[in-house]
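Hey, resending since the last one bounced:
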Amino acid sequence: MVVKDIYFVWTLAALAGFAAVAYAVRIAVRGVARSERVSRIGGTAILGQSVMDWTYWAVEPIVGVFVSLGITPNGVTWTALVLGSGAGVALGFGWFGLATLLATMSTIFDILDGQVARMTNTGSNKGELLDAAIDRYTEFAFLAGLAVFFHNSVPLLALTLGALLASFMVSYASAKAEALQVTPPRGLMRRHERSTYLIVGAGFSAMFGGWLTARFPDLPWYSFELLAIACVAVIGNFAAVQRLVRVGRALK
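The structure tokens again:
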């Protein structure tokens, strides 16, 4: 465990705290913010709609800056890929705190590209295709970094590959439903939910890993991330099968 790595998580926590205070003021003055996109896609088991509304509200000023600077939606999408790939590299070297910061920024940029496209009326099918592809690559980079980190342990590597399988099968089931003109069934472990589990697990490992091993020497410092990976692997694969069954029934 890299001791200095924790500072990246504290930086992220400070930014989140500032955004939370600002949103509390917004609620007191003008009420709860509502996002049309969030209302359409809905919340998840771990990310309620109110949390997602807060997130979309928090990035609105950044969207305005990007638009004023002439940054294109595709430029934002490619930046998300760079940040997500950096998170994967950091994980491979055991820098879980840095990976948490980079992966969170990548997720935020994934939100920003759509917001910039809507504000500038430059959305396109090509842009949506690029965005979907980058989502897959960044998710792969995160789990691939963990696979590299766990390469000396067959059980942990297998668990990580199980999470990787779940992430792609859930996305595949939804994409296949759309291709077959079936309404994609909602369920557990959609991308933002998977990302939240994995990123929070990495952040908790960086912040509390030393505390955990001091009290429970038999547990590795990255136990929080292992728990997150297990949740994605088990629940995610179950959710993927459930989606495929529902799509099959809709076709009948």
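The radius of gyration is 19 Å.

Sorry for the duplicate.
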